[in-house]
Amino acid sequence: MTTHQHPAHQHPAQQHPTQQHPENAVQVDRKVVLVTGASSGIGAAIAARLVAEGHHVVAGARRTDRLKALADDTAEAAAHSGGSLRPVQLDVTERVDVAAFVQAARERHGRVDVVVGNAGVMPLSRLDSLLVDEWDRMIDVNVRGLLHTIAAALPVFAAQGAGHFVTVASVGAHEVVPTSAVYSGTKHAAWAITEGLRQESDPSIRVTTVSPGVVESELAGTITEAGAAEAMRTYRAHVIGADAIAGAVSYALAQPADVDVNEIVVRPVRQR
Hints:
This protein is an alpha/beta fold. Helices cover 42% and strands 14% of the residues. It is built from 8 helices and 7 strands; from the N terminus they run βαβααβαβαβαβααβ. The chain has helices at residues 41-52, 64-73, 75-81, 95-109, 132-160, 181-200, 226-235, 243-254; strands at residues 32-36, 56-61, 84-89, 114-117, 163-168, 205-212, 263-266. Helix 1 (41-52) packs across helix 8, helix 4 (95-109) runs parallel beside helix 5 and helix 5 (132-160) runs parallel beside helix 6. It is globular.
């Protein structure tokens, strides 16, 4: 795990009163957290963990049936922690959709503390397969979707004088293997965009990139090229649960206002 820190100044908007739920003796600094791509895998794990920790989560994705199931599954944890989960239909490739997602959360809760840009797709293939439509889809979701999310949330964070961006990238941001050229390109772009955001932002806005290795998810199910699908079965021989990534996000969010955890890489011990 690699972490870098830069100073951040405590701002009144970050000084949320510590609350205590009558059924839970643990005090919680409740945050309003927006999670994109929350219908399955890492996004669902992040949402569930943060609800259990007492945060108010707005879970966005295209598959609203999955989001409603997630809300039902986390209802008991929310009752104990004082947190909540609100499912919202969201397509990150639609700029107006993302803007409405952020604005509605702000109007409902009065603020937005954290935005987790998790939405992503991974239809791996060799370049000579020329699956251009799949390349375009990866660029639209993994890159444009992240930019839409930043564009919607950054003015809100600037107005509040506080906020935290979390981008879920990939170890593919740091390495390229056969069949991963376009996917790795989009994830390196996500890493670069997030690092640029960190450098350009006021210290009151914290920025984190989490790069997962091989994690249990539905991403591999989007691969249509037979060779890439077979290679992925071997590659995914050793996986870790999505909650490992949720734990990394939770760690970054839980740091004091003057601590900015910029990068975390989490992968199975057997992954090299």
